[in-house]
Write a structure and sequence with these properties.
This protein is of the alpha/beta class. The chain is 30% helix and 40% strand.
C-alpha cells in the first residue's frame, strides 16, 4: 500500500509530511540523517528535494547508487511522487 502526501489547502506541505519522508529515509541502513526536506507539486506530480547524510565507512563515490536507491524507495512508498532530488553528504 502506498501512502499519500497531502498538502494544506494553500498547496503547502505540512511538517508532518516532511517528518514522514525523513522517517522513511532514516529507516535505510546506509542513512544516518535526513534533513531539509522540500516538497513541491506540479502537473507531473510531487517532487521531493532533501539532504541525506550517509554513514561513515560508505564510499562517497557510491552517491549515484545511493541517490537512486532513495529515489526508488520514496517513489514506491509514497503515491504521486514523480521526482526525488537527493543531496548527499557523509557523516
Amino acid at each position: 500500500m502506498k501512502y499519500k502526501l497531502v498538502p494544506y489547502s494553500n498547496g503547502d506541505y505540512s511538517l508532518g509530511n516532511k517528518l514522514a519522508i525523513c522517517y522513511v529515509v532514516n529507516s535505510l541502513d546506509f542513512v544516518s540523517d535526513c534533513y531539509k526536506v522540500d516538497i513541491t507539486e506540479s502537473l507531473e506530480g510531487v517532487s521531493i528535494e532533501l539532504g541525506v547524510k550517509i554513514k561513515s565507512g560508505l564510499l562517497i563515490e557510491d552517491r549515484n547508487f545511493i541517490a537512486n536507491s532513495i529515489k526508488q524507495y520514496l517513489m514506491n512508498y509514497f503515491d504521486g511522487v514523480s521526482n526525488v532530488t537527493t543531496h548527499i553528504t557523509q557523516d
